[in-house]
Amino acid sequence: MPMVQPRRYGEGQGEGANSVLGKTRLILEAFQIDDVALSLSELSRQTGISKASVYRLAQELLEWGMLERSGQEYRLGMRAFELGSRVPRFRVLRDAVRPLMEDLHFSVKETVHLAVLDGLDVLYLEKVTGARQATRPSRIAGRMPLHCTATGKVLLAYSPPFLLEELVDRGLERLTPATIVMPGILAKQLRGVRAQGYAVEQEETTPGFTSVAVPLFGSSGMMLAALSLTAPTFRADTAAFAAALTAVTRKVTASYQIN
Length: 259
Fold this sequence. Notes:
It is a single chain. With 259 residues, the protein is an alpha+beta fold. The chain folds into 2 domains: 14-84, Winged helix-like DNA-binding domain superfamily/Winged helix DNA-binding domain (Arc Repressor Mutant, subunit A, Orthogonal Bundle), CATH 1.10.10.10; 87-255, 2-Layer Sandwich (Beta-Lactamase). Helices cover 43% and strands 20% of the residues. The chain has helices at 20-29, 40-47, 51-64, 78-85, 88-108, 150-157, 161-170, 183-196, 238-255, and strands spanning 38-39, 67-70, 73-76, 111-118, 121-128, 143-145, 199-202, 209-217, 223-232. Strand 8 (209-217) and strand 9 (223-232) form a beta hairpin. 31% of the residues are buried. Mean pLDDT is 84; it is low at 1-16.
């Protein structure tokens, strides 16, 4: 696992970092997708907040249920999951699409993802998979880069141009030898996505895997999410995957009033 660098106190929060709420946010956001539990020292190091302040705030978060104790370490509590599950925009979307994702998985026997745009990342809302795709590193509530995932390319292609500019300014990270890190090539790919209606990512995120994604629009015409199929490259049929995904998104748009 890569070593987590200490976070500069209040990074990205401006004046709000000095408030109790700002410090609480830093503590909760210190938990990454792979962190089962963090010690008091780790929370202090990652947030830049003193151990005494972390301990005091952690006690209140324990009483609230946002954190739980695991021996001498802390982990996110069930209250955090409960509140996250109540977000109406994502809950309605996930509930509407999940049955169709299951049907698609049953039909093609490959991993199906539902993802949305969150900042400069892809956020996965739902995943339907079988045992033979267990090595794929995505997970529900996990994040992945926009520039090298099929879902991310779709979300970028149908977003305002400034989003791509911000992404390029941040830097395009290379995850595999196949990852596209040249802004000009990425921009050309995005034009292709808009022209053909789907995106393809071949081994840019994980060697040996290919993904195909299409946009999911609401009844008002606004882009809501991206839906994708992921399979080992040797058996990925991009044209068939794109057609199957498009059929699902049309059903969602026609059958559900989601905006």
